[in-house]
Amino acid sequence: MKYYIINLGCKVNAYESKVMSDLLDNAGYAKGSIDDADIYVINTCFVTNVAEHKSFQMIRKAIRNDHKIIIVCGCLSQMRANEVASIDGVDIVIGNKDKTKIVSYIDEYLKNKQPITKVYDISNIPFEDMCLNNFDKTRAFVKIQDGCNNFCSYCVIPYTRGGLRCKRKIDVLKEVTTLVKNGHKEVVLTGIHTGNYHDGTYDFADLLNDLAKIDGLKRLRISSIEITEINDKVLDAIKNNDVIVNHMHIPLQAGSDTILKSMNRKYDVAYFIDKISKIRGLRPSISITTDVIVGFPGETLELFEETKNTIRKVNFSKLHVFPYSLREGTAAALMPDHVKEEVKHQRVNELLEISKELEINYMRNYVNKVVTFIPEVYKDGYLIGHTENYLSIKALGDRSLLNTFVDVEIEDIAYPYCIGKMV
Predict the structure, then answer these.
(1) pLDDT at residue 126, as a whole number
(2) Could you tell me the CATH number of the domain that includes residue 345?
(3) What pLDDT does 134 receive?
(4) Structural domain boundaries enclosing 334
């Protein structure tokens, strides 16, 4: 039988989809396409209304394609288990626990031909052991942590993913070592609350220092880290380990103290700016990208202007901008003064324009300079990939250079790419 997995959402979902794919491969199933698969797995997302809608859309599409077995897992299943299970045509429903048991659930279904729903309370469960030997890409994700205890007022993740829990350090080190031996040059540490990793008294900074010692690992990247988690030990790890890339993604969410407090974020603007200054004191050319939510309840024009001013003051190299999405069960859903959708849309566009300006300004620093990138895609004679500080590079070159380190001189900018010439 053939299977096909559609992945929606974050890097954690991407990692877990790859784990399920490996388990199915090892059980004798073959990868199929969206059209010919017998088993269709939808790993869903629930973080926004758009993500929820797209997840349901993918379920309906799978049913129309008349796949023999339809499996729905992930955050939508965790939050809407009964609704998903009641959809005619859905055969197996798994939440955010037991994705590693996908093969046994398929076996059970094939034997009994009865729908299966396996969704549990995940508020207090251990870390589900998962491991990959190969990620099929230059850049390999490694999930080191799951869940979150922060309870930001807009966010459902503590309910969809449960409380904070972490992979054992011995398992993380073993997995990364194996990935490097199998040819991966870059590893991305990922989780829901990555920087809060711990194994007893062993913390995130300890993990960074130990991973940096792995022979053959060229790039170590943190998928995202909260500003409050960048303590002195983490700063020392960044200072002392060149294998940690010159890029960090640090969510701001809002540049107004009033909105940050309403969001139940654990810092204010002054704290954020001070910590960024410390990072840049260690890495002057570092690329710092961020997430921003616009249109949060109570966000007046004046408060939005504060966010814009903070963004320019920090001088990020790129913004990921999201309109606030109301999620039932969160504190923000009950707040007064919700912002109109057309105002959110306008503010999103304003920040996207600022993001483009900031990104181009950062790119200009590298014109006429030599940089190293790893080509990940070959298209129309061009190699396309990223530098360690996440510049998007496009350069004429040979397909044989894919997944190798290539030096180019940046000659021009054709947004979103820096145009490089082989050195």
Answers:
(1) 94
(2) 3.30.750.200
(3) 85
(4) 246-365
Contact present, 160 and 79 (Cβ < 8 Å): yes
- The confidence score (pLDDT) of residue 316 equals 98
Residues of the chain with pLDDT under 70: 136
pLDDT on residue 68: 85
- Residue 34 pLDDT: 87
The verdict on 297 and 406 lying in the same domain is no
Which of residues 245, 271, 303 is at a domain's end?
Answer: 245
Same domain, yes or no: 254 and 358: yes
One domain, residues 392 and 338: no
Which CA distances in Å does 309 have to 57, 226, 290, 303? Answer: 38, 20, 15, 10
Looking up residue 406, the CATH number of its domain turns out to be 2.40.50
The per-residue pLDDT for 7 is 96
Q: Which of 248, 196, 200, 199 is nearest to 223 (CA)?
A: 248
Chain centroid to Cα 263, Å, comes to 21
Q: Are residues 60 and 172 in the same domain?
A: no
Cα(390)–Cα(107) distance, integer angstroms? 43
pLDDT of residue 65: 81
Domain boundary at 118, 147, 164, which?
118
> Domain total for the chain?
4
